[in-house]
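Quick one: structure tokens for this chain, please?
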Amino acid sequence: MNEIISEITRLTEKDCYHLVERHKKQHTYPMHRHGEMEINFVENCQGNRRVVGDSIEVLGNYDLALLGGGLEHTWEQYECKSQDIREITIHFSRDLFSDAFLAKTHMQPLQDLFNRADVGVAFGMKTIMRVYDRLNELVNMEPGFYSVMKFFELMYELSISTDYKLLSSSAFAHVKMSTDSRRVQKVKEYIDSHYREEIRLQDLADLVSMTATAFSRFFKLRKTSTVSSRSVRDVPLRSSERTTTRNTS
């Protein structure tokens, strides 16, 4: 079985979401998981294969999926012959939608959507066509308040969709990674890559947006962690891809 990479996404604690649009000739990203939730839209992908937990499906020309944090997944090239696969990936934290917010009566569809996302949700063509323009608008909008509102609109449209199917069985739905574990992973990755250099406490604290004092206290409480730093990697974008990326806070 191939190694499953624990990815550190480019979403920061100050961002509402992180969006990246890619145009590429093939899918090469390995099986991975991360703590953030993910919306992934793929176009011109006839013959690609989506793998989410124990769900494997060969795709048509379009695919749109919502994945909960910690769920292993990848999109494989498989039999796709397209020379311009378009992919839009949006990462966001489940914490963006607080429990108190989701407890409101009007937010029940979103609460139900997040529950379904724990095993992965794939949307049908009816839903894809309904949100297609919203996705394109979001890609082209300048980061700011209105782009966040557009993102919320997108999420709500997905939440009221009846045109969907669940993907992985519950046995493959991993427990969500906490924000704390994400910080630990990020620091371990940095140390693993820079162990031959002088590493200052302040540099590590800055890496996770903490003061040196808070950082020191944080890691003293977690110093018994046995996670190997070499099991955590931040795989960079490949230079052959044309990419548009936005962080919105």
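The CA atoms of residues 49 and 58 lie 4 Å apart.
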